[in-house]
Design goal:
Radius of gyration: 20 Å
Strand order of the largest sheet: 3-4-2-5-1-6-7-10-17
Helix content: 25-40%
Oligomer: single chain
Distance between the termini: 55 Å
Low-confidence stretches: none
Shape: globular
Number of strands: 17
Largest sheet: 9 strands, mixed
Order of helices and strands: HHEHEEHHEHEEEEEEEEEHEEHEEH
Number of helices: 9
CATH topology of the domain at 62-91 and 155-227 and 326-342: Rossmann fold
Length: 343
């Protein structure tokens, strides 16, 4: 079982995140820190806007797919779909990412078949395996982007997150908002989920809402819709694939260490499965103790979680559930227009 300290930290984090949706004592106490955080964000942005801080332009177009909230708005499925779209249009895309949670001892770091999620981060490893394009991670996105261009000849770059990374100039900002929570209480961290004020959405060229087609406007800005669905699962030990109906009839354990695990749980329930939910913090590093479930049943998890569980002893019971994206075609049409104008 997880350590007592981990469980306590999880409870504290849960209490803070509950305050993001409905004000509680934690959010009220943290609000002064949010005011200070917002001031720092505004001053930092002003520093880049006025030239006090350096911002670099790379010789190829850069598309940023980011957000203004922490957690799982659904950026990664859109990154994967965007890269696949660019490949179909004849481009040679590359992906750059911060590699959150990665423990590499040198940066930038190329993601490949021999790397693991604990070294380069779970999302970059997943993107590489799904898209089969060059992926480079590191805290300096300008350096990572330059490496993609020089080493692989990439003619367009997709930045996984990075809406707040002003050191790298971009040609297109696509911002994804969680359709369920929107901007929650509209407060910045830590009393709210926002990395920067809602007014920053004015910088977005394309605003995308994930999972709620009725939310076509957000703070007066038009938004396009996307959603993900789940249809099948792949066994971590054997690689065999079963449709989700094969898991009906007996309870299964559902594991999600993502920003919005409830979306995954509801998707499985919507496929007719009886699930026992196990939510973990976003980017959670799993250990065998995390899977000491009683009774022992099949374990279904997101692909992002699965890339960190391939060496688990009971992986024959573990199944990765891919997310299939359905997005408004206008998202990709806008990309084509921007790329044509930048050329």
């Amino acid at each position: 079982m997880r350590s007592t300290v981990s469980r306590i930290l999880d409870r504290v984090l849960d209490n803070i995140q509950q305050g993001w949706r409905e004000p509680n004592l934690a959010s009220v106490l943290l609000y002064p820190l949010s005011v200070l955080y917002r001031l720092v964000v505004v001053l930092r942005h002003a520093g880049y806007r006025t030239g006090l801080f350096r911002s670099s332009k790379l010789p190829v177009p850069v598309i940023v797919i980011g957000g203004i909230s922490v957690g799982g708005s659904g950026k990664t499925p859109l990154v994967i779909a965007m890269v696949q779209f660019l490949k179909e249009q004849g481009y040679s895309p590359g992906v750059l990412s911060r590699g959150y949670g990665g423990q590499s001892d040198s940066w930038p770091r190329q993601v490949g078949k021999s790397t693991t999620a604990d070294i380069v981060g779970d999302e970059p490893q997943l993107i590489f395996e799904r898209c089969e394009v060059p992926v480079v991670v590191g805290p300096d996105r300008v350096q990572s982007g330059s490496h993609l261009i020089e080493a692989f000849g990439c003619d367009v770059l997709v930045s996984d997150d990075g809406f707040q990374h002003f050191a790298l100039r971009r040609d297109l900002d696509v911002v994804v908002i969680d359709g369920e929570f929107g901007t929650a209480n509209h407060w910045c961290l830590p009393a709210g989920p926002l990395r920067e004020p809602v007014s920053s959405l004015d910088r977005a060229h394309v605003l995308v809402v994930n999972g709620n087609p009725d939310r076509t406007r957000l703070k007066g800005k038009e938004a396009l819709a996307m959603h993900v669905e789940v249809r099948d699962a792949k066994n971590l030990a054997t690689g065999r694939v079963h449709g989700l109906p094969a898991f009906q009839g007996a309870p299964v354990h559902a594991v999600a260490g993502v920003g919005n695990p409830r979306r995954f749980f509801r998707a499985l329930q919507g496929a007719g499965l009886t699930v026992v939910n196990h939510a973990f913090p976003d980017h959670h590093q799993y250990s065998p103790e995390d899977f000491c479930f009683d009774p022992v049943q099949e374990i279904l998890m997101t692909e992002k979680d699965a890339v960190k569980c391939r060496e688990m002893k009971n992986k024959e019971k573990m199944w990765a559930v891919p997310a299939y994206l359905h997005a408004d075609p206008e998202i990709f049409e806008t990309v084509c227009e921007r790329l044509a104008s930048s050329g």
